[in-house]
Design a protein that fits this description.
By secondary structure, the protein is mainly beta. The chain is built from 2 helices and 36 strands. The strands form 2 sheets. It has an 18-stranded mixed β-sheet. The protein starts with 19 loop residues before the first helix and ends with a strand.
Amino acid sequence: MLKITVQPEGAQSGWNPRGVARSMGLLLAFAMAIPAWAQQTRTYREGNSWVEEITGTLPPAPVFRVDTAIGNISVETGGQEIRYTVRMRSSRDNEQEARRALSALRVSARRVGQFSTLEAVWTDRQYVRRFSADFTLQVPPGVGFIHIDTMGGSITVSGASARLDLGTMAGNITVGTAQGSVNAHTLGGIVNIGNAESGLLIKSGGGDITVGNAGKRVEIYTPGGNVNVNSMGSGYIQTGAGSVRVNHSSGDINVKTAGGFVNLGDMQGRVAIENGGGNIRIGSCRGNVSASTTGGNIDLWKLYRGAQVQTGTGSITIEFLGGRGSFGESYVRTAAGDVVVYLNGATPVTVHAVSEMASGHGIKSDFPQLRISTQGGDFGPKTVYADGTLNGGGPALQVRTTIGQIEFRRAR
């Protein structure tokens, strides 16, 4: 039979009351407190398995900790006290073996000082096989911090007002709505965050990560998963081989990937992208842009400030819309690819462009102010240059390709 050990607030290990009268008084007070800390246990057969179900309550504390050796955990906000249901299942050849297995996971609940704690630990790990557990928790909104750690299950949290620290060895992590900050870590599962009003720190050993709307800073690390964010404040995203998609960012964002596709939508702050070999795309950006990839195409649209852009073996398309006072010095470089530059009619810029080994026209321009000149080319590749100022001149725009064509077009 499983037992839940409940320890009253302020109690300590080894506590030894003095005097029979005092002992009886404390025991009576504890007995009167039992209804608020009550728990029930029932065991029953369900199909080919035996199930033990423990239900109970805990007084709320500023911090609520859940540590379990196994099990899925589900948390919702509500009520005036912490309510828990632990449902353990064992599939064994006979009832006696099943009951031994169920008793091997020791569950305890207690409130000590600033902490309310629910723990489940193995007393005999030989029963891990054909064993599962589920924890259903209801936490009052007054709890300020929730820490959950499970060695072998998924974590689901809905409607949390507390700060969250969530960790699992192999399961998924799902958070519906979180008012406080969220720290989520899984070694191999999927992380899905709906709406987070505060900061996010997410680490996954290899699973995909999805974030709906995050109001503040987001930090994401995964060695092999894809990252999808609808909206965020500022942030840092790093993935070993996955793709990154962010629809909107109100602050600065830094993205690193070893080889995935980076697709950013509406960016309001500065953007820095390092890609080991994939394509890069930005829909629009109000801040400075730094983007590099060793072997992909780069498409940057509606840029209002300067850009430092480079690819090893890909084409580059870039659109500058910034006016005087916003556009800054820019550098665009590809070793083997074509470059198309769109310029706003009001962008003040000084252009220096070169196609080093042009086999065709080399450079074309919609702007007669740019002087195009050619060197060499009678019996081999030629070098083509374009120089000039637009709208009275301004910050330098340098465009260079080793093997490819360059075009300057009017932005529409």
